[in-house]
Amino acid sequence: GMQAGFLRCFSPLRSCRSLHWRLNALRYSSNVARIVSHDKFNEVLEINYKGETKKIGLRWLRDHCRCDSCLDQRTFQRLYDTSQITDDFDSKKVEIDSSSNQLKVEWRNGHFSTFRMDWLHEVTQIKAESTQYDVLSNYKLWNRASFKQQYPEVSYNDVMNGARGIAKWIEMIHHFGFAIVSGCPPLPIGENAASREVMEKLGTLKRTFFEPEGVWDFTVKPKEQDKQMEHADTAYTNLTLPPHVDGTYFSEAPGLQFFQIPQHDGEGGETVLVDGFQVGNHLKRHAPELFDYLSSFPMPFHYYEKGISLRNTSTVFTMNRDKFLRFTFNNNDRMPCYIPVDQERYHYDSIAWLIKELNDPKNQISFKLRPDQLLVTNNWRVLHGRKGFTGSRRLVGAYIGMSDFLGTGRLVQSVPPEAQKQ
Ligand SMILES: [Fe+2]
Ligand SMILES: [Zn+2]
């Protein structure tokens, strides 16, 4: 049941030594909350909990009421009409129920709110500016010298055997922007279900006009280069592909991209990867005015084929405060647009510099994927390219949207859903 408010019971208890000692022990060694002050004039509450004192506004508390009429308990959607807040937030009574460790607030209009202290503690750690993409800022920049032929790798068995293996895989993708799953089962021609099963561990595959079912599976054969390509893209040829990210022309570029080469009976075709954030970081330090241009100019990209017309603009380097969030560039897909003459020099100096860095071997890693290896890249960060090849080469792949991938990560790392549960 509800005990007397902490403030009121504190003074009388002080005279009783043993109770006082017990109370202090509770306060400092366990997680019993204490109201430090209740400033009615400014409507601010100061609460000490888990060794830290935090100021919480009463408007905020009223807006975050967890009761049945303010919050839908099945969907965690807000039912409270926040426009009522100026009439509602005036508090009549505020107390801590120390037995259940809950903050109880009675409002002027008679409404009653209860907050679990653990919930309050958790929710007040969440910063608005870092809720959506914060995990993406946990990256380690790399170039060719960073790896000694040992790339981030996880085994097929690990990722198929539960959350721990998947969590490890996701962590590698956050750190390096790519990871390889080794030991995947063979994919006979015409079959890719085994590959799909691994890819779906990280989220729902994205359906696009390239592949309405989500997985692409095609073989480039010699002497078929002049025939009709499946789509209007050099990915469907055996030519060298310079490092790029995919889908610069989508309103939101694909978050993850998978690559598996189950069969190749010729030479070449090595995969090339570049860390777009590392290149950006280098530019920021050595040519800040070019970096400023590439992180502010809305570069247009496009894709055309019969029946399809896509366009998007994006800065090459998109930042989330002082961290890199997204790299967007594919020179082949850059769309014609007018550049004012006074901008022209910056425009071309920065693009030329960028392309030189992306093609500089010191920034590239390169390896030939084995048939049992499935590569995944963070397509918002790591560029992929391919060396030209001979013979028949089969490519299986797919995309996952960034929202889906980040959602999988939260669930696997068992972060409670927005810490909303009462
Ligand atoms: Fe590509
Ligand atoms: Zn309520």
TrEMBL record:
CDD domains: CAS_like. SUPFAM superfamilies: Clavaminate synthase-like. Its cofactor is Fe(2+); L-ascorbate. GO terms for cellular component: mitochondrion. Pathway: Amine and polyamine biosynthesis; carnitine biosynthesis. It catalyses: N(6),N(6),N(6)-trimethyl-L-lysine + 2-oxoglutarate + O2 = (3S)-3-hydroxy-N(6),N(6),N(6)-trimethyl-L-lysine + succinate + CO2. Residues 40-121 form the Gamma-butyrobetaine hydroxylase-like N-terminal domain. One of its GO terms (molecular function) is trimethyllysine dioxygenase activity. Keywords: Carnitine biosynthesis, Dioxygenase, Iron, Metal-binding, Oxidoreductase. One of its GO terms (biological process) is carnitine biosynthetic process. Residues 148-399 form the TauD/TfdA-like domain. Pfam families: GBBH-like_N (PF06155), TauD (PF02668). Its EC number is 1.14.11.8. Converts trimethyllysine (TML) into hydroxytrimethyllysine (HTML). Belongs to the gamma-BBH/TMLD family. PANTHER family: GAMMA-BUTYROBETAINE HYDROXYLASE-RELATED, TRIMETHYLLYSINE DIOXYGENASE, MITOCHONDRIAL. This is trimethyllysine dioxygenase.
